[in-house]
Design a protein that fits this description.
- The complex is a heterodimer of chains A (234) and B (386).
- Helix content of chain A is 32%, strand content 26%.
- Chain A has 234 residues and is α/β, with parallel strands linked by helices.
- A six-stranded mixed β-sheet of chain A has the order 6-7-8-3-9-10. In chain A, strands 2-1-4-5 form a four-stranded antiparallel β-sheet, covered by helices on one side.
- The radius of gyration of chain A is 17 Å and the shape is globular.
- Chain B is of the alpha+beta class and 386 residues long.
- Chain B is built from 13 helices and eleven strands.
- Chain B has helices spanning 4-11, 15-45, 71-76, 121-129, 138-143, 194-200, 221-231, 244-253, 258-287, 289-298, 302-339, 349-376, 379-383; strands spanning 54-59, 67-68, 81-89, 102-106, 133-137, 151-155, 167-176, 189-193, 207-208, 210-215, 239-243.
- In chain B, helix 2 crosses helix 11 (302-339), helix 9 (258-287) runs parallel beside helix 12 (349-376) and helix 11 runs antiparallel to helix 12 (349-376).
- Classes of the chains: A alpha/beta (234), B alpha+beta (386).
- The interface between A and B is medium-sized, with 25 and 24 residues.
């Protein structure tokens, strides 16, 4: 069975003025359907860059990136936007909710890109909020919610359109321990009970324990570790 | 339409800033409505229904100099003149000088030359048969709550009566209507009998203010005008005959170039408005860069982001502008109801259409740069705060 995400020889070079900075260097990686992968590594190791490439937020300089059988490294900006809308849910460290919209309206956002009628959109958003345990906070605006609750709203927004893949960038980085545990438990439940494939960048080894696999990046290269030697494709 | 909630929420993200910007837009369009009402009134004053089929003959020296009534018979005999009449400016005041309206002494055939003044046959007959009879426009009657049968006393400012009295009392026998809304300022006038006026006035008897000629073929206007002016050539009362349009336009231009003045004021107002709303939109988008990045992350296309920012900008102008124009419409109707004969036309469809066009244009103009910025932002840079 072919992996959900297939990365071959992936490199990313940023050009800043006259300087070229190679952030990822010939990375090879397979992520199977239903995996919960934690990407770890020091600052500047290329974790977020790799996550952005997997999520279709950026394009590689070199190499191939196939998700669910589709080469996304070849897609132009508008095709990538369409692809993201249909295949990926995003969770960020700082929640990135729209402050003027209620929790329900924030969750509904990705559904605006579908052809669902308003009533369906509202009911889907309600189900997603129910799943993250915030049905009673649907009408609240982000400013009226705690950090942990905001992150759970962000997770509801990420899953509301039933994406193929969830990409999470330091989802607990801005949370206290208790809230972090709640969020990680929720992600774990989404992976175990709902079969969501999750790629999570984290600095926190305790957070990585919730993942089924962990990979380490250092200076733009995947480093094989004792816990997770199998993920890096040879 | 499904993005409307998103656009609306973004617009009121900073309520006080949006409110103050809306007030500025409102003030600009209120001013636009009021000034354009004045401009249109002056512009329309140069138009008449009959156009060049009606000519006006005045003294060549000055509009204020009267002409001998003896010219009347001669003018009627000029080939091409189908019918002629005349009028005198009376300049009477009703109760208070601020109640200004035009009042003129006219002969009984006057209304034959003004078919746009709709008067019933009975009212016309009463006017022709009543020596002290007067006819007023419907707007004027409404303003002073006059009805047929009322007596209207006017205080003379130019023409006292032979008995020394300055009070001229007229019996209201008819109320005329003007069907065309853009010509309705012509309802702000009172007409009474020239014969009564001429017999009762203390001086100036046997003279008229101006002649009005209806000509058979508008193409003959130049020739007929020259023939009329030839009657009094080399006399002490030489005349100048021109089309009614030209007469009214030159009369209005004595005040000022209203179009230029209004245009200049509005140009300055809208230029300031563009800078103000442009700054607001630029700030609003700058603050929301991470949010726009999130929308793009979720899958909103560059074009959608562009359209949403532009829609926000146009919506800002449309809300403020529509309220401003609605207020202008209200203010103009109050001014017209209270003061009557003011050079202001109701804020009608034409001004609304111009206003809506300006709202859309300014909205797009001030939104285009912030919208381009939102459209072109790189998600990874925006999320990283770069």
């Amino acid at each position: 069975m072919s992996p959900l995400v297939e990365i071959r020889n992936l490199s990313k070079v940023y050009v800043r003025g006259k300087q070229k900075l190679e952030v990822l260097h010939h990375v090879n990686l397979d992520i199977a359907q239903g995996d919960f992968l934690a990407l770890m590594g020091p600052s500047g190791s290329g974790k977020t860059t790799l996550l952005n490439l997997i999520g279709g937020l950026d394009s590689p300089t070199e190499g191939t990136l196939t998700v669910a059988g589709q080469r996304i490294d070849r897609l132009g900006q508008s095709d990538l936007a369409r692809w993201r809308a249909g295949h990926v849910g995003f969770v960020f460290q700082f929640y990135n909710l729209l402050p003027m919209l209620s929790a329900a309206k924030n969750v509904e956002l990705p559904l605006l890109l579908t052809k669902l009628p308003a009533a369906k959109r509202r009911s889907h958003a309600a189900v997603a909020l129910e799943l993250v345990g915030l049905a009673d906070r649907a009408a609240h605006k982000p400013g009226e919610l705690s950090g942990g609750q905001q992150q759970r709203v962000a997770i509801a927004r990420a899953i509301v359109s039933d994406p193929t893949l969830l990409v999470c960038d330091e989802p607990t980085g801005d949370l206290d321990r208790q809230s972090a545990v709640e969020v990680l438990t929720l992600l774990q439940r989404l992976n175990r009970d709902h079969g969501k494939t999750i790629v999570m960048v984290t600095h926190d080894p305790k957070a990585a324990e919730y993942a089924t696999h962990t990979l380490h990046l250092d200076k733009g290269t995947l480093v094989e570790t004792a816990e997770a030697p199998a993920q890096a494709a040879s | 339409m499904k993005y409307f909630n998103l656009v609306w929420s973004a617009l009121f993200r900073r309520k006080s800033r949006t409110l103050f910007t809306l007030l500025s837009v409102l003030a600009a369009f209120l001013l636009f409505g009021l000034l354009d009402s004045v401009r249109t009134a002056f512009a329309n004053a140069g138009h008449s229904v009959a156009g060049a089929s009606r000519l006006i003959t005045i003294s060549k020296v000055s509009f204020t100099l009267e002409l001998p009534k003896s010219l009347y018979m001669k003018i009627q005999t000029v080939p091409g003149v189908a019918e002629a009449t005349y009028a005198n400016w009376f300049g009477g005041i009703y109760q208070d000088p601020k109640n200004f309206f035009a009042n003129e002494a006219v002969p009984s055939n006057f209304f034959d030359l003004y078919p746009e003044f709709h008067l019933s046959a009975d009212e016309l007959r009463d006017f022709q048969q009543t020596r002290t009879g007067a006819v007023v426009g419907a707007s004027l009657a409404k303003r002073f709550h006059w009805k047929i049968g009322d007596q209207i006393p006017l205080q003379a400012t130019i023409f006292p009566q032979k008995n020394g009295s300055n009070t001229w009392t007229f019996n209201l026998v008819g109320i005329y209507h003007v069907a065309n809304p853009s010509e309705r300022q012509q309802e702000d006038a009172l007409f009474f009998h020239w014969q009564y006026f001429d017999e009762a006035r203390a001086f100036g008897n046997g003279k008229v203010g101006w002649y009005i000629e209806k000509i058979g073929d508008p193409k003959d206007a130049d020739r007929v005008a020259q023939a009329i002016d030839a009657i009094a050539a080399n006399s002490d009362h030489e005349t100048k005959t021109q089309s009614e349009d030209a007469f009214q336009a030159s009369f209005v231009s004595q005040f000022a170039d209203i179009g230029l003045i209004v245009g200049s004021i509005m140009g300055a107002v809208f230029f300031t408005l563009i800078l103000l709303t442009g700054n607001t939109m630029a700030q609003a988008v700058r603050e929301r860069i991470p949010e726009l990045a999130i929308l793009k992350t979720i899958g909103f296309s560059n074009r959608s982001v562009l359209a949403m920012v532009l829609a926000e900008s146009v919506l800002l102008l449309a809300i403020g502008g529509a309220v401003g124009l609605a207020l202008a419409e209200l203010v103009v109707s109050i001014i017209r109801a209270r003061l009557g004969a003011v050079p202001m036309l109701p804020v009608g469809v034409e001004i609304w259409l111009q206003g809506l066009g300006l709202m859309a244009l300014i909205g797009l103009l001030v939104g285009v740069l912030p919208a381009r910025r939102g459209m072109r932002l790189r998600i990874v840079d925006a999320l990283a705060g770069r």
